[in-house]
Amino acid sequence: MLAGSGAVSFVVAFVAVRVLLSRFGRFALDEPNARSLHERPVPRTGGIAVLLGAAVAFAFGAAPLWLPAALALGLAAVSFVDDLHRLPTLARLTAHLAAAVVVVWYVLSPMHPMQMAVLILAVAWITDLYNFMDGSDGLAGGMAVIGFGAYGIAAHLGGDVALAVFSTALGASAAAFLVHNHHPARIFLGDVGSIPLGFLAAALGLAGWRNDLWPLWFPVLVFGPFIADATITLVKRAIRGERVWQAHRSHYYQRMVLMGLGHRRTAWVAYTLMAACAAAALLGRNQAPWLQALAFFGGSALLAVLAVWVDVRWARFARRSQQAA
Fold first, then answer.
1. Are the C-beta atoms of 81 and 28 separated by less than 8 Å?
2. Within a 13 Å sphere around the CA of 96, how many CA atoms are in the beta-carbon half?
3. CA–CA gap between residue 30 and residue 190 (Å, rounded)
4. Does residue 13 come out as left (phi exceeding 0), alpha (psi in the -120 to 50 range) or beta?
5. Pairwise CA distance, residues 241 & 117, whole Å
6. Is residue 49 within 8 Å of residue 177, measured between CB atoms?
7. Ramachandran bin of 4, using left for φ above 0, alpha for ψ from -120 to 50, beta for the remaining angles
8. 201-258 confidence digits (pLDDT tens)
9. In the 3-class helix/strand/coil scheme, how is the chain assigned residue by residue?
10. What is the average pLDDT value for the chain, to the nearest integer?
């Protein structure tokens, strides 16, 4: 069932991407701006193909996850309008927060109100940070393949058919998109893809926790490379007094590209890090508490080491650039 779902999802998403790359699909172009790392307009409709491919899962047993899927579809609709005609920030954030409230209440109620509030904010943050991290060729697509692939493996081992099928379909659809998103990317996810994927990373992570498939730290570590980059960057910008809501190029992955690694090598460094975090999470999820702590903090230490390495290299790069100027 998993293989069938994944194969059909890949084919559906692949065909959908090809259609979106044809003259029938060039209706939303991503124009380069201050935050961009690309230099020419690129269609930002790839998320439509990923969602179409993932929908195949509901023919293979994913029906129990209808609410997270429906909420993701609603966010995709809002995000698609935003891709075409920029919506006010407040309107977008309200939609993200509303979806987080509904999914946390549906998945985890009854729960202490303070715990629910923290998890609601966490879901809303992961929804948005996935969009922040969708700025380099191959990055967000690779995170989806590895992250939802890890969910699918853990859910399959735990006997949760619906979550295994849906996660596998998401990973396979993202892989079909990734074929066309490697540098030089021919298509981007767009908000229509990155926002629903971020939401589903959080929502399915909570569903697996509720169903005792994994501890709460598991989805945090699986998607740790994105969570760490976006969160640390936001905190650093806030400390410096910058307007955190404005476009920028200070994410760690952006600095890696700008320092000379380029899109392709940055993506492969990120894939290695993502795979290491996913492997640690999978190996540690059912172990004794001290081994779980070792898996989580070991993965976190790896992220911290890479962050320090980029910071040091960036400081040297910035000094050389100033001297050359």
1. no
2. 30
3. 8
4. alpha
5. 27
6. yes
7. alpha
8. 999 999 999 999 999 999 999 999 999 999 998 888 888 877 766 667 788 888 898 8
9. CHHHHHHHHHHHHHHHHHHHHCCCCCCCEECCCCCCCCCCCEECCHHHHHHHHHHHHHHCCCHHHHHHHHHHHHHHHHHHHHHHCCCCHHHHHHHHHHHHHHHHHHHHCCCCHHHHHHHHHHHHHHHHHHHHCCCCCCHHHHHHHHHHHHHHHHHHHHCCHHHHHHHHHHHHHHHHHHHCCCCCCCCCCCHHHHHHHHHHHHHHHHHHHHCCCCCCHHHHHHCHHHHHHHHHHHHHHHHCCCCCCCCCCCCHHHHHHHHHHHHHHHHHHHHHHHHHHHHHHHHHCCCCHHHHHHHHHHHHHHHHHHHHHHHHHHHHHHHHHHHHC
10. 90
What pLDDT, on the 0 to 100 scale, is given for residue 4? 80
**Tens of pLDDT along 31-78?**
655 555 555 678 888 999 999 999 999 999 999 999 999 999 999 999
Q: d(Cα 78, Cα 276) in Å, to the nearest integer?
A: 34
Question: What is the Cα–Cα distance from 163 to 154, expressed in whole angstroms?
Answer: 9
Do the Cβ atoms of 23 and 45 come closer than 8 Å?
A: no
Question: Counting every residue, how long is the chain?
Answer: 325
Predicted local distance difference test score (pLDDT) of residue 2:
79
Query: 189 to each of 6, 13, 27, 48, 169, how far by Cα in Å?
Result: 19, 12, 14, 8, 16
pLDDT of residue 248: 72
Q: What are phi and psi of 187, to 5 degrees?
A: -155, 145
Contact 173, 69 (CB under 8 A): no
Counting Cβ atoms within 10 Å, is residue 171 exposed (0-12), middle (13-18) or buried (19+)? buried
- The C-alpha atoms of residue 61 and residue 256 are separated, in whole angstroms, by 41
